[in-house]
Structure formats: structure tokens, C-alpha cells
Amino acid sequence: VGGAWLTGRLIAGAHLAFGVKAFYVEHNLTTAPPALAASAARASLPRVYRTIAEVDLALLQDLLAKPGQTAEAVRLRFQELAGSAVSNARLATERGPEDYRNFLTLGAVYRALLPLGFPEANNLAESAYQTAITLAPHIPTIYLERARLALVRKDSSAVEKWLTSALAEKPNSSQLWYELGWFQYQEGRNEEAITAFGRALEIDPYFSNARYLLASSYERLGNREAALAAFEQVFLANPERTDLREIIERLRDSLPNSHG
Predict the structure, then answer these.
(1) Closest by alpha carbon to 108, among 97, 124, 96, 120?
(2) Confidence (pTM)
(3) What's the half-sphere exposure (Cβ side, CA atoms, 13 Å) at 221?
(4) HEC states along 219-249?
(5) Consecutive 10-residue runs of the chain (260 residues): their mean pLDDT?
């Protein structure tokens, strides 16, 4: 019996490795599901259920973005994928209640369902994220995901609260400063966004998206010289972008003495 159990675990592990590679590395939504299903059939590993739930979410997003389908076909496939995602995410937490990543995935599943007509998903997602924080209070990704949940329900104060919490855990993350700046930029809080994007660029001077939005924030405030300088830096790193060339020409033409 012990040998058969070990063989089953090894086979399950091989299927899991194949499925994980297919999904996370190759982004292949055709080969990943059967490999993961084969792994789940051999062993009840939390990682398997967690990955299946994440694949289900990707398939759900693909379904909603794909044109030319009948409403009935979409409805039936949606119910199947949503049910599978919730079921597998829950199984992951039941099989691995000590691993915060399982609750992070469960929260992500409920967050994805919130704008699709499932208002009760908010409280379920909050509960999952809170459990993740209890298990791993110093992981900034959890706070970032909670901020994204707040963004879905348009709760600006909560978005800022959780982004700030994430930065408290990892203040030298250029990505987190960018996320904060992007949120402030969307809110029209351009001075604050400039500060956040500036911090992101202090940490990673080659962060082109941060520099682009820094330039856009300057332009919103009417500081065309600073906007032009920042856009020119982005263009140096991305010379193939014709839209940047047009923006730069427009800003140059708008400056005093631009024609000599």
C-alpha cells in the first residue's frame, strides 16, 4: 500500500509540474487543465486545487472577452467555471489551512465574481484576505490584493489604506509606489501621484510606465517643461512608440520660443 501511495504522489507531482509550467510559464489554457485534473485525481494537494482555481479564473476572463458566443452558451460555461473556481479554491484552504496563498486565491476568486452580479462575494473575499493577513501579516501582496478588492467596489479610502499598508511592509517596492501613484492619478490627485511615481523611479529609474504617468501628471498640472522632459526620457527607452513622438512634438510646439 505504501508503495502505491508513493507512486501516486509522484505521478500527481509530475502532472502538477506539467500543469504549473503550462499555465504560469506557457500561458496555455488548453494543456494546463487536464494535467491539473490528473494530478488532483491522484492526490489531494492544496497547490493543485489552488492552481486549478487560478486556471478557472483565467478561463473565465477568456470566456467573457471572447466575441461571437450565444448568451446561453456563455451563461452555462460561466456557471461551470465560477463553480469550479470557488470549489477548488475552498478545497485548497481546507487541505492547506496554514498556507496564506490558498486564502489569497480564494479572495481573488470572490473578487473576480463581485462585479459580475454576486454582491455577497465582497464579504467572502474580505474574510479570505483577513485570514491570509492573520497567517502572514508581513506579506505586502495580501494588502495589495485587498486594495484591488476595494477598488472593485469603488471604496477609495479603503484602497489607499491597504496600499499604504502594503508599502509599510515593503517601502522599497517600485511596483507598490506605482500602484499608489496610479490610484491617485485616477482620482485626479496629481501632486500626490507625482510624489508616488517619483518614489517608484528613485527605486527603479527604468520604470517606463511610472515615468509616463509622471509626465502625464505634470501635463495635467500645466507644467509642460517637466512633462516634456519626462516624456522625452520615456521615448529614449521606447523609440518605437510613435504616440510619444506626437506628444513630444505637441508639447514642444506649445512652449514659449518653441520656434526660435
Answers:
(1) 124
(2) 0.84
(3) 18
(4) HHCCCHHHHHHHHHHHHHHCCCCHHHHHHHH
(5) 59 76 82 84 86 93 88 91 95 97 97 91 97 98 96 95 97 97 96 98 97 97 96 94 93 77
